[in-house]
């Protein structure tokens, strides 16, 4: 008989039971688009309103998804273990802190003008929560991979990056908080940020190496995993953005201390390292574009994994705008505008496909609660 996940429960409870962390990728894509629109060179009220509206939409999504996810954990505890042991769904636990991180950055950008300086304390508290969640995902999920989950090289995809990239995303957000803090708190936050950045990027490079090996030996994964081709761009772009941001605020945080010289060196090396990471990201951007053209010929099916097209592209766009601001080179600004237009088009397409999937009820199936031969990325 065909599998019907809603057959034994009232529909609202069935929806909660099958709610997956995959949905938080939607908050990541929406939040990063808000930040990109805010970085556009035209200071128009309509763009400011659009970016703030997108951020508010992202906040609403995160709040709703958090309530649904907590309800699943509390009401259906029997689903927790299958979720943690699922080799794909568990990876999306990293999307929770990453979605929160971009919303915190938006809170600093949009919340301070609207609600005043008190927003800084809220943003700082949320950042420490985000850092803790990111560290938890980066430790627990790999531990389960090494001890309980079943994996094979031919099944490896870049979705493995999601839990370990979360600390890096938190680190890039720390740079926006540092100028708003007292010197001692700023230094503490920046040190933690660099530690999270180093932890995440080092592991990301190791995994990207494995992804390249898997692609060479076993070629592209199936069409259900098409969006994972873009995921390696995420840590490269976030690494660039974090290094640039933390390097720029380091002299401010360590002014008047014996570490001022090191902080100034971090600023200068941050620009050089950022350029290098941007170059690596550019290679992956072009390669992922070719992969996507290949997948389009195979009529790839829609799933929540398509939100993976948005966040890496968005962070790379932010890094490009930041390089334009620091170097003054117009080429970065032009590339940033092209990337922003691409991001807006992709986000709108994926949003419309998501709404259609919600309307038809196609996205409300937790992979860990479905038969083993079902599509792994379907949320």
TrEMBL record:
Native source species: Stutzerimonas kirkiae
Membrane topology qualifier: Multi-pass membrane protein
Keywords associated with the record: Cell membrane, Membrane, Transmembrane, Transmembrane helix, Transport
Main location per the UniProt record: membrane
GO CC terms in record: plasma membrane
GO MF, any single term: sulfite transmembrane transporter activity
Coiled-coil segments: none
Pfam families, per database record: SLAC1
Subcellular location per the Swiss-Prot or TrEMBL entry: Cell membrane
Keyword Transcription found: no
InterPro entries: SLAC1/Mae1/Ssu1/TehA, Sulfite_efflux_TDT, Voltage-dep_anion_channel_sf
Name of this protein: C4-dicarboxylate ABC transporter
Classification lineage: Bacteria, Pseudomonadati, Pseudomonadota, Gammaproteobacteria, Pseudomonadales
Annotated Gene3D superfamilies: Voltage-dependent anion channel
Transmembrane segments: 21-42, 54-76, 88-112, 124-146, 158-178, 190-213, 269-292, 304-323, 329-352
Family membership: Belongs to the tellurite-resistance/dicarboxylate transporter (TDT) family.
């Amino acid at each position: 008989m065909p599998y019907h996940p809603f057959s034994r429960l009232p529909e609202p409870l069935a929806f909660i039971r099958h709610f997956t962390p995959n949905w938080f990728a939607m908050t990541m894509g929406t939040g990063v688009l808000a930040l990109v629109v805010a970085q556009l060179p035209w200071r128009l009220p309509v763009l400011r309103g659009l970016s703030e509206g997108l951020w508010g939409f992202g906040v609403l999504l995160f709040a709703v998804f958090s309530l649904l996810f907590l309800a699943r954990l509390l009401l259906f505890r029997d689903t927790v273990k299958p979720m943690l042991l699922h080799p794909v769904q568990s990876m999306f636990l990293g999307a929770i802190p990453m979605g929160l991180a971009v919303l915190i950055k938006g809170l600093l950008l949009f919340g301070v003008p609207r609600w005043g300086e008190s927003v800084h304390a809220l943003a700082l508290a949320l950042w420490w929560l985000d850092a803790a969640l990111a560290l938890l995902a980066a430790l627990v999920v790999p531990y389960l991979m090494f001890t309980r989950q079943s994996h094979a090289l031919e099944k490896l995809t870049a979705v493995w990056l999601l839990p370990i990239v979360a600390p890096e995303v938190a680190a890039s957000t720390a740079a926006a908080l540092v100028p708003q803090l007292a010197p001692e708190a700023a230094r503490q936050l920046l040190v933690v940020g660099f530690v999270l950045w180093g932890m995440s990027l080092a592991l990301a490079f190791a995994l990207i190496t494995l992804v390249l090996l898997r692609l060479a030996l076993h070629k592209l994964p199936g069409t259900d995993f098409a969006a994972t081709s873009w995921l390696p761009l995420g840590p490269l772009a976030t690494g660039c953005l974090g290094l640039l941001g933390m390097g720029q605020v380091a002299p401010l945080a360590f002014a008047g201390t014996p570490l001022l010289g090191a902080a100034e060196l971090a600023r200068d090396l941050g620009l050089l390292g950022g350029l290098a990471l941007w170059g690596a990201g550019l290679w992956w951007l072009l390669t992922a574009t070719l992969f996507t053209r290949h997948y389009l010929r195979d009529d790839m099916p829609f799933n929540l994994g398509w939100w993976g097209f948005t966040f890496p592209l968005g962070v790379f766009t932010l890094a490009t705008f930041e390089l334009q601001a620091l170097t003054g080179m117009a080429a970065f600004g032009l590339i940033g505008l092209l990337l922003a237009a691409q991001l807006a088009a992709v986000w709108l397409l994926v949003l419309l496909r998501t709404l259609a999937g919600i309307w038809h009820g196609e996205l409300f199936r937790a992979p860990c609660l479905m038969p083993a031969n079902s599509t792994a990325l379907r949320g």
